[in-house]
Write a structure and sequence with these properties.
413 residues, alpha/beta, 10 helices, 15 strands, 29% helix, 15% strand
Amino acid sequence: MTSNITRRTFLGGAAALGLVSGGQALTLPKVLLRRKGGATGSLIVIYLRGGADFLNMIIPLGDKDYKEARPTLWLDTDDGAVPLNKQWALHPSMSAFKSLWDDGTLAPIVCVGSHDRTRSHFDAQDFMEFAAPGNRTQRQGWLNRYLAATTEGKPDTFRSLAMQGLLPRSLRGNFPVLAMPSDFGGRQDIATLDAFERFYGAGSSGGMDERPSEGDEILASGTVTIETLRRYQEILGEKSKGDFGYPKTSFAAALQRTARLFTAGEGLQVAGLDYNGWDTHTGQGGVEGKQADMLADLSGSLAAFTRQLGPRLATTSILVMTEFGRTVRENGNNGTDHGHGSGMFLIGGGIEGGKVHGEWRGLNTSGLYQGRDLPVTTDFRDVFGEVLRNRLDFQIPKDFFDDYTAKKLGLFA
């Protein structure tokens, strides 16, 4: 094997495996690196793309302005809403979350978001995932910045993965992260890997027993990537120890794969996964409808995920977020429009669970943002900072969040 491999040749092979998007190799520029001192905890970030309506997920019980603003969408305990305390309830389709609340592993956060005024999906997602509201020059995701800041030069092929074909913006940047398409592992992929393996690393025995020299960046990256994909196949090919009550959906299947990787002992620390379709301008519904079906999938899948993690949940955080909320008032199409303040769910061990966090000002028009939306009383970067400090044991540098110092919120015990 010689070293006359070009970037074009590599990208061609990567494209065959579904690991390239927009002409950019998502897997490679450098050998993957190990966290300094070893992993202290794990984090999976679930992004609800489209601007999810948290106001009908975490329901303000007894708020007369809520009922008035949403004459067809509003929900109460008579509709099956699941009470959490005297002030708050879960959407009826989210009953799977009640056990997490009861055992202290669920912490909803209300009125979270960005202080930037945009109602553009694209801008709001960029600002949140790059953790730089209003700043279009920051192009390295907040999770990627963490990964890059906490590495040393030892290979670690499983430190971070995106469980989908497109790498989330939060994981894009200088640190190489694998994006794993949901259909990876078929017969065609295996054949391509075989060809890739021969191309990049075949030694005298025809296997991977002779690594390229450290000075050959493309060969070294290719070798590590192939080894990662082989191990990924092996883990997912092992017989499952149960279905843990997952719904039969693509989102649930992706979470189930993620849990198997987290518990395989390969050092996976940070994972990302998108859930699309939350832009509910029409047909959102109340007890029934598009949102109800998606919430049943979301909560049922995440509850099963926590069961599959087992003891690993004690050192894992699951952060569920969206780019902005929806209008307090419903529109004329049984839906809601782009809003401002939203919410998050923090799930896992070691948190101040069984409590709704965040400053709530009610739904009277005088307290709403621009008279129509939930205000932002908690900057999303404060939540990011809590997770980085407490779950990943990261001492946040002053310049980590551009021109912002993350405040402590008390989300962890």
